[in-house]
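User: Batch of two.

Assistant: Item 1 of 2:
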Amino acid sequence: DLLDVNRALKSIEKDHGYHESCYDEQTNVQTVFNNRLDVDKNLPTTIFGMFRDPYLRARSAFMFSSHEDLRPMHAKDPNMTFEEYVAMPEVQNCQVAMLAGNKKCEAKNKSHVKLSKALELVGQPNFFFGITERWDETICLFHKWFGGDVHRYELKNNRKTVSNARFKKYHHMLNNVTREMYPEDMDTVLFSKVEEVFDYRLKEAGCYGKEYSNALLTLAESRRWKSKH
């Protein structure tokens, strides 16, 4: 049951913390809850991550606010433009920093971040990753790598964004916002490599362009039911 799975994951995070790793002696596998790749290289490990188109990620962050004055995430002025927002050091190079750095995404100084390290990590065979905007293909690839069947609940958006107060008041500020307004930074270079590796893996696994229709999921569920009965 999906709710039981979510409860189990929350329990693990609560017991072990986000920056802890758990080792299972029976399977000789370690599970790491961390955004730094400080794992024991003597143990078999698969790193799991998700990437997002930097431009779309910035648009989403620009329209999100948890503050009373409705300023966007990491910013101080609720009336700033999208171009001003994406020029902020706290917004740029975020995914590279999380992958290959030792500071949080919103750190102003990301001079420690090495793009070459991030690009190298993306190509490693023990690093499984997906792309948020290509969810069905990600799920297909996941099961090709790790086995098991695709279930309907895996394709459901369980954290769908609802219209928050900032979006209701400032949604007009996205009018005429284009991809060209997002400056090329380390994240855009990284994402280009991510797409290249992702497409290659999808084609090798037969998942490129995969979309799971209701009819296909119903057929799979019927086959699983028949195999059990």
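Item 2 of 2:
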Amino acid sequence: VYVKSGDAPEKLVFTAAPGNSFGELALMYNSPRAATVIAKGACKLWALDRSSFHQTIMVTTGSRRKQHEEFIAKVSLLSSLTPKERALVADVVATFHFNAGEVIMKQGDQGDRFYIMESGHCVASIMTPDSTEKDVKEYKSAGDYFGELSLLTNSPRAATVKALTETTCVGLDRDAFKRLLGPCTEILRRNISNYDAVVKNLL
């Protein structure tokens, strides 16, 4: 999936895999296509025309969007957003489910997503220079978030986050994070110094 902005060349923003979908935004908002989708090889797709989409998918999409809006309204981090801005976030967040013991993000990897926890229990850990793994923070409340550091600083993941129980999160990709969470940037940047202090105490 490629998006063009102004006179810049088209930029790859998403690679679809089996089970992914695309093309819904133009049908939902009766607007021109916002992206170009190119097949990298032989593909088999299911397709819905506009009428069928509105009769079936809109019901499901509308329900999911409402659930996201209700959850986002309760997240303290996002309280500085206007109702319209929160609605835009609700449009683009995706829901992710993780099993107990599953690694959500790994220290050293490139960051591509910001997560807000809906339910579950996670722990962030770092690998010290002497190859000792140390826990630095737990996430166990709805509205807890992680993954912002890498996106704010354009650096690799600073910690590994693992689900300790069945966990559900909503996530924003890098582009949506930077485009929609501008009003929250100052709050998020405060976490950088807090995180650095925690790590310094452990090392």
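The longest strand covers residues 113-119.
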